[in-house]
Structures are given as structure tokens and as C-alpha cells.
Amino acid sequence: MKTIAIVGFGFCGKMVFANLIKSLKEDRKILIFDNAVKGFANKAFASFSPHYILNVPANKMSAFAEDQKDFCQFLEKKYPKILEEITDSGFAPRQIYGEYLEQILTETFALAKKKKVDFELINQEVSAIDKNKSDEEFLLKTKNNQQFKVDEVVLATSFIQTEFPWKLESKNLLKNLWDENSLSFHQKNFSNEKICLVGSGLTAVDVIIGLKKKNFAGKIFVISRRGNFPKKHFDIDDKPSIKISVDDAKQGVLFLCLKVRNFLRANPKFDLCQIIDSARSSTQELWHNFDKKNKKLFLRFFPYWNIFRHRAPRSSIEIIEEMINSGQLEIKKGGVKSFSKNGAKILIETRSEKFESDYLVNCLGFEFNAKKYPLLNQMISRGLLKPDLMMVRSNHQKIHLLGGLNIGKDFECTAVPDLRVQVERLIPILCLD
Fold first, then answer.
1. Cα–Cα distance measured from residue 375 to residue 394, given in angstroms and rounded to the nearest whole number
2. What is the mean pLDDT of the chain?
3. Is 379 buried (19+), middle (13-18) or exposed (0-12) by CB count in 10 A?
4. pTM for the full predicted model
5. Distance from C-alpha of 263 to C-alpha of 216, rounded to nearest angstrom
6. Alpha carbon distance 118, 28 (integer Å)
7. What angle, 0 to 180 degrees and rounded to 10, lies between the N-to-C axes of helices 11-23 and 94-114?
8. Which end of the chain is more exposed for a tag (fewer CB within 10 A), N or C?
9. Under a CB-based contact definition with an 8 Å cutoff, are residues 127 and 382 in contact?
């Protein structure tokens, strides 16, 4: 009987398991590895705060590629008032989406038992994967020094948080906003404290809106290299007529930039965000048709791309704009030079000033350097993975990568609409004898 290992049990891991159980007609043994503290929790949709909302509209958040109304139907059945309030094009609370995934998981466990599928949840972190020399099996080793033989591996591990380069031990320094050590911060009712966020992406938006929803009356500092927050979601009633094709991509990044710039000059009613949104469905194909030189060139603009590509709910950005105008939120452009303890407070030094804060929160986003991931490095050393421009690629037909690990190959691969398609394509391969 073939044994499949699913390493990582976030969105991708859960949905591989759910779709695999639905599709299996032959006997399989499934081993699921994840070291989440509380019953394989999904950090992206954990119950940290009811005030954090999704950044993608509800009608695009179905977990199943073949049934794109599934999440909205879940809302209609369990939270009809919320669906009525936000509509299917609005943004649901993350907690509720986490509940949706847990319902799928509960139903999957029941179906697996009904179909008598042999599966096991192993609450351990995989530290090494090797190829058995004597046969075609892989040997998975955990940090607890247990070993498991498997025939196929689905690597669905999550991104890790970009770390601060400075070492400081303080309960008021939040190194990772989404781990269990930060739970008290999410649940605390602040009053007039000063809170400093490093980074101005979607994580920072979550923190700011979460604080404001709890009537936070203190001061928020945001340190950001460029001082830009994500752009607002908007409906494209009048789509740009510009067509960006594979042939354009083959001519290179500079050609594409010139084409877009000329279009915007001739059509000032449109902006770059609208063009990016209109080309969203073909972004992967365009990336695939860049040669290596142009991929490297594009990555030099990656921070700017993130500013115009990432979207936050309109209501969230409007709240942030109001806080900036009132002086409650202050943006400090540049980077952190150092930080240190100063009594109960944290002293933060930028290139231009020093100031104190009661809390310092890491909102730097994901780490794209594969060298920071011990398991990936170990697998590269064994020839099972190979380095890519960003992250890694599989170097073995029985090692399958999902989610953000594919960013070098597919570029746009971290939103739920992309992830569910990845899962759908993988299932027939896993079902082969």
C-alpha cells in the first residue's frame, strides 16, 4: 500500500487531505506532519481576534476549485447576518474562515473513517527527508528522532516570518505576530500606549485595524522603507483595454514597463493597480515566459510590485487614512538602525531619530530566502530540492511542493484562489498507482 506524507497542515495541507480522501479509490496510507500547538491550527486564520478580516472577497475564498460558492454557502447557513452585511463581495472575519476550514476537516475525518482510509496525525516537525538507497522510499525524520518510511511527499510548509537582525528579549517585543507567544497582545485591551510596527504590509493593516476596533486611544508608529500601505480593493467597472500577452513577456520586463507606461499616459483615467488587477489571471503565464535574466530584473522591482499588487479592504485603508490625518498614526520612512531596552520601554533608533515605544511589533512579512529554512536546506543537500530565484523547486518526481514554496516557479501562488488550483492539479497525480 502506497504511503503519502503531507508535511505542513495549513490551508494547502488540509485541502490536499480533503481532496485526496474524496478522490481515493485505491488503498493509501496518509501521514500528516505538523507541529502546531493546538490541534493542527491554521495560523493564517487562527482565532487571535474577531477584528481581523480577510483580504480577499468572500466569493473568491472557496476552498474548492470545483465549487467556488462553497464558502458563501457556509456563511449563508451559519452566519446569514454577516453575509447579509458584507455581501458575497465583502470581506469576512478570518476567525470565521478558520471555522470553515475546521468544518471541512471534521467532515474529511468522518469520510476517511467511513472509507476506512488509514491516516495518522503526527504532531511533530519534520527535520530531514532522505532517499532510501535500497529502494524507492523516502525516510522522514522528526525532531523527536522518530523515522517514517513513505513513498511520496507533499511539502506544504508555510513561509516563516522575516526575523529582526537584532537580539532583544522583552515580552513587549513581538517577533512573530501569529505564534502562541503573541496571543496576549491580540487579546489585550490597550489604552494610551505607544506601539511601533516595523513594516507596512497586510500584517500591519491587521494590527492597526484590530487596535482601532478595540477603541485604542494611544499612538501607533509605522516604520517603513517607502511609507506605503497596500492599495484598496476596488471594482473594475471599466476595465483597461490594454492587452498584455505572452509575446510581450518574451520581449522582457523593460518592454512591458514601457507598454504599460505609454498606455497610462494615453489613458489617465486608469492607474497601475487596475492594469495589474486586469492581468491577474495571466500573471503566472507571463512569469513563466520571462527568461532568467528578466525574472531577476523583475525581482529588483518586487517591493514596488507588492505595494501595487496587494489589496486591503477599502474600509481598512480609509480607517488608516483617518488615523494618519488625526495624528494617531505616524509613518516614519526608512529602516530601523537598532533597538534596545530602556526600562520598561523599548528604545528604537532609525537613521534620523530615536524614540520610545511600549511595544515593538514585527510586521516585516514573509522570508523568501530558502537558506533560512532548515528542512529545505537539508533537502537541497540531498538533491531532493534545488534552489530557485525565490525559494526552491522539486528535484524528484515524488516530491511535490505546494503554496509559497512555488513562488520561484509560479510567482503568484499564495492567495486561496491560486492555492486551491495547485491542490486540484496535484490530486490526480497522488491517486496514481
1. 13
2. 91
3. buried
4. 0.91
5. 44
6. 7
7. 30
8. C
9. no
Residue 42: per-residue pLDDT: 57
C-alpha grid cell, residue 60:
473568491
Q: Convert the chain into a string of H (helix), E (strand) and C (coil).
A: CEEEEEECCCHHHHHHHHHHHHHCCCCEEEEEECCCCCCCCCHHHCCCCCCCECCCCHHHCCCCCCCCCHHHHHHHHHCHHHHHHHCCCCCCEHHHHHHHHHHHHHHHHHHHHHCCCEEEEECCCEEEEEECCCCCCEEEEECCCCEEEECEEEECCCCCECCCCCCCCCCCEECCCCCHHHHHHHHCCCCCCEEEEECCCHHHHHHHHHHHHCCCCCEEEEEECCCCCCEECCCCCCCCCCCCCHHHHHCCHHHHHHHHHHHHHHCCCCCHHHHHHHCHHHHHHHHHCCCHHHHHHHHCCHHHHHHHHCEECHHHHHHHHHHHHHCCEEEEECCEEEEEEECCEEEEEECCCEEEECEEEECCCECCCHHHCHHHHHHHHCCCEEECCCCEEECCCCEEECHHHHHHHHCCCCCHHHHHHHHHHHHHHHCCC
The number of angstroms, rounded, from the C-alpha of 196 to the middle of its chain's C-alpha atoms is: 23
Q: Which three cell numbers stand for residue 14?
A: 488540509
Task: Over range 133-153, report the average pLDDT.
Answer: 92
Helix-helix angle 302-309:292-299, to 10 degrees:
70
* Single-letter code of the amino acid located at 189: N
Segment 163-212, tens digit of pLDDT? 888 888 888 898 888 777 777 888 888 889 999 999 999 999 999 999 99
pLDDT the model gives residue 39: 41
Contact partners, residue 305, CB within 8 Å, separation at least 6: 298
CA 269 to chain CA mean position, Å = 32
Question: What's residue 57's pLDDT?
Answer: 93
Closest among 306, 331, 332, 328 to 319, alpha carbons compared: 328
Distance from C-alpha of 209 to C-alpha of 192, rounded to nearest angstrom: 16
Residue 38 has pLDDT above 70, yes or no: no
Tell me the pLDDT band of 40, cut-offs 50, 70 and 90. Answer: very low
CA 72 to chain centre: 21
Q: How confident is the model at residue 311 (pLDDT cuts 50, 70, 90)?
A: confident
Categorize the per-residue pLDDT at 235 as very low, low, confident or very high, splitting at 50, 70 and 90: low
Amino acid at 187: Q
Positive or negative, the Cα torsion across 415, 127, 184, 207?
Answer: negative
pLDDT of residue 37: 44
- Distance (Å, whole) CA 159 – CA 206: 18
